[in-house]
Amino acid sequence: MFMLMLAAACQAQSETMQDQLLLATTERQSGADDDEVVERNARFVRELVTAGFGRPLRLIGTATWNEHYLPLFMAGLYIPEGVARNRAADELTPRRMELVWRNRLLAADRIGRWWQQHFRSQFSRNEDWQRNQPRIEEYVTRLAKASPRHRWVFEYQPDAGTVLYVNGRKVLHFVGADINRALWNIWLGERTSPVFRKNITGKLGL
Questions:
Q1: Where do the domains of the chain lie?
Q2: Closest CA to 143 of 175, 162, 166
Q3: 178-190: per-residue pLDDT in tens?
């Protein structure tokens, strides 16, 4: 038992050091090319123009999501030019999140369990969860079938909800205020890892 506790403590310390190293590495690599930022070999352009957004989008942060001390995916968050990064999580702020899965051979059931668990954790009231559960379970089923081999892009518009594109193809449209709030709170909410949230909303210091 003591050895297991010691191993866990060492792993936690190692994870903290990895987070610090990741920040330094991202800063060094991004300096090599002003047009993109690198997060664990996942590349994110600093600025892009895409249909549906009235202004160019700028990258405000990148982060790695860890599960059981192992990286699950790398992410980059974009908001429109002229919008302060401290408003990135506001429900009236259009935004775009790109995910690059670390393991491109993830089993569908594992992806499905991850989404189910994190959606459920965003509902503190059981009645709210029960009201939204049927639609969320439908979404989770379709998310589990989406290929982790390609980049996932979530684009949010306050009046239209969130659309998921995988390899440039529209896969899913999230509708409903509660569901969209839960979806984005997975990455930007109070229950998210403080390190992930801090990096994804301002790691680049823009």
A1: 2-200
A2: 166
A3: 999 999 999 999 9
